[in-house]
């Protein structure tokens, strides 16, 4: 067991779905045969989540507080929680015996707590006390209410690890995308499509695929404009910025089978068909929409989500970070019905990347 990677899991917003899906994910005994999980969060929230999961799903788990990684026992059935002591039972607006949505939404208290969990898990990874980090959802509104002016996890990680060149990778099964830009306006996103940034992201995509065991990644680079600009009729970014980046990447030996930008309305169908291992996209929604269309499955007849799958990985960092690919779910948090699949996927990626990094 001592050879298994230690996975630090930030609890996410204490009034969101993170505590509950963490309990559900760690209720799978098979996980403990692959890693040593440690939750960074608060006892009050995790104890509430255990009661909610037990009442609704029949899951029986215990919570054990620790003040250091060394104190964790990593025993199945007992969740080790690095207790930050930021949330008290009285902060939770309902009782453990009556699981229901918290109803608080984005709050400064939740934002401060969730930010501190992320800060701590990064600190543990930078000190080599955990081998990979996995993050539950936080609220961008909440952390800003708390005075932490970041647009999301990716930017927090980049700042705290002093990383300049990084990008977000979304993955679901064999569909993977990385972004030239993420949390900016669409108008600004177009302005950020520059040769140097596109080339950096192609390089990061290549390295990211190799980090999960793909030895010779096949990369597609999506165009920005309809029909890739139609030779300049609908925009010149493909000609002036994207193609030069592709040429430079191929000169370095990076495999881009088409050798040119691929129209964004067909690139994902090709990726699903196995043409590519990863797609470089130009802006946030260009990558998020196809991933969530494939990974999020809503059961209209039953009125609930059958699947909320997908992983968000930050590439280019000195530490490993994988995350759920969904939000805090404030409207249903605490009622015992949150879907843990995305967190399970994220932990799996964290394990795979930690093992690859260790050469095991």
List keywords for this structure.
Isopropylmalate Dehydrogenase; 360 residues
Write a short abstract of this structure:
By secondary structure, the chain is α/β, with parallel strands linked by helices. It folds into two domains: 6-163 and 318-358, Isopropylmalate Dehydrogenase (3-Layer(aba) Sandwich), CATH 3.40.718; 167-289, Isopropylmalate Dehydrogenase (3-Layer(aba) Sandwich), CATH 3.40.718.
Structure description:
It is a single chain. This protein is an alpha/beta fold. The protein has 2 domains: 6-163 and 318-358, 3-Layer(aba) Sandwich (Isopropylmalate Dehydrogenase), CATH 3.40.718.10; 167-289, Isopropylmalate Dehydrogenase (3-Layer(aba) Sandwich). It has 11 helices and 13 strands. The chain has helices spanning 18-26, 43-57, 108-126, 140-145, 153-160, 186-191, 195-211, 237-251, 267-272, 284-295, 341-358; strands spanning 6-10, 36-41, 62-66, 78-83, 132-135, 167-172, 175-179, 219-221, 278-281, 296-299, 304-308, 311-315, 321-324. Strands 3-4-2-1-5-13-12-6-7-9-8 form an 11-stranded mixed sheet, sandwiched between helices. The protein has a two-stranded antiparallel sheet with strand order 10-11. Helix 7 packs across helix 8. The longest helix has 19 residues, at 108-126. The chain is globular and about 65 Å long. The chain starts with 5 loop residues before the first strand and ends with a helix. The model has no long low-confidence stretch (mean pLDDT 92).
